[in-house]
Amino acid sequence: MKKKLSLIFTVASLLFLAPGCTDLEEQVLDETLKANLSPEETANGLIAPVYALLPNLFQHTTYFALNEISTDEAILPYRGGTDWGDNGIYLALHQHNTTSTDPNVNSTWNTLAQSISRSITAISGLKNSTATTAALYSAEARGMRAYYNLIMLDMFGIVFVKDDPNVASVIIRGDEAVKYIESELLAVEPLVQPKSVVGPGRLNQAAVWGLLARLYLNAPVYRNIYSPTFTFPAADMDKVIQYTDKVIASGQAKLSSDYFAIFGNKNHTNEELIFAVDQRADLNGHNRMAYFSISGDQFPLAAFPAANGTDGPGITSDFYQSWVQAYGAVDPKRDPRFYQENMSVYSNQADTCINDADYKINRGILRGQQYGALRVNGAFVRCPDGKLKVGKLSYVTRNKANLAVNFSELIDFTTAGSNYNTGFRVEKYEFGSESNTGRNKGDADIVILRLADIYMMRAEAKLRKSNDAASALADVNLVRASRTATMAPPALTDMDLDLLFRERGFEFYWEMLRRSDMIRFGKYEGKWTEKTNSDVKKRIFPIPQTAIDGASNVPGYLKQNDGY
């Protein structure tokens, strides 16, 4: 099978039309399977749906929202009193007051349930396949079922166990769930291919090792999710070290010298990626990670004057101040992970005419007055020589031309803190080069697991096992020193768990790891902008009421999580 799955999506889409349900029983359309397909084509049609919903899972309002807006890294106010209100769901999410009727919780749950169901269907359908790819695809489907269950455990505290598509799933929790996911990943470890063979868009050997390390690191949390404190057994930490060592020693991934290239439009070949949502151009991925945060008056593409942002979430002042405190009198942009300037107008305001090919908005954490292509009546303004006219942006599209697109540190749920220009914004992923609407055709693969996290997990395991600060510091500094495309961050001189937590924030901000990090480091019940709720029951999300209602014919089958 080729690395790209795009050629088999058409076949796959015919196989699975019904949404996933709570007992994970999904009808297979036998007519399609009998349409004179070869064993290889049938196998392709079974494995493609296993991956097909990953872009849906990694949308701005599903996995991202639940794992970032619930933390100190992201906040989404009711913009201008008119936008992003959504019946208060984003305010509630940030304040840990989410309910079981939240549509984003429901969408995330349904996507996970359906993906587990599709994995089960693939495993079952491949059992008697004569295709040469059957054994490999079966292993990938089994591993992906474990991955989806790992997310289900992390977010909802439960795991679905099911092998026969015609039998209802068994629901497990806690240590039993950890052991089940562990056994599934270990079973496929020797069967999946190296990343060099299948690429980062499919489950590969290094990805399995990395997911095992992630499982062992979080296992103490999963075993007793409401515990006041967590104890990290040496045996678990040894496993983290064992599997991160495997990834590093295998050479299947290399740290990127350019931090923002990891999230660029050509990142599918970036060697730091281990496992990712494949979004190459011909797969018609989404651009949500790039447009969500930036202003509606930021138009990043010279070819498409309709492609813009939505004034979504910004970072909290609390998170920004962690950068300020780390760098003291030095501006945080000294760190190449914080900011990448792509338009010289920011440092040379006389430079107001730019060639279309040279026009790119800045990346990273965007502060202050924003500059960009000026638009009048739906078209970009041009200089006399035909170049793009670039200048200070204001909220013309909001009919607020007197309000500058001047991002402030202030962002909260007050009227002043909810204006369109409040909050420093994040443009970590590059804006898709072919996105004519701004919403579609994202080019950048969405990172699930990358090599920097492997080093950081190993550092954390060493600290938690034996307080081996020297080895942990070496791993963290190795990652920092690798970013040599510009001036690398200065080396740290000491290391402890608090410093490592801060470093994980700098390295992985807005990569959907913050919630699990905060829980594991004992910081999720803390206070930050607009959030004071300290209820440990909010570490996991409510099971959607629609799912509970759908399973009501089996008494006690699906029980709501405590606290909801």
Automatic annotation (TrEMBL):
Keywords, ordered alphabetically: Cell outer membrane, Membrane, Signal
Pfam families registered for this protein in UniProt: SusD_RagB
Ranges for domain RagB/SusD: 290-533
Keyword Signal belongs to the record: yes
Compartment list: Cell outer membrane
CC terms in the record's Gene Ontology section: cell outer membrane
Main location: membrane
Family of this protein: Belongs to the SusD family.
Protein name stated in the entry: RagB/SusD family nutrient uptake outer membrane protein
Organism taxonomic ancestry: Bacteria, Pseudomonadati, Bacteroidota, Cytophagia, Cytophagales
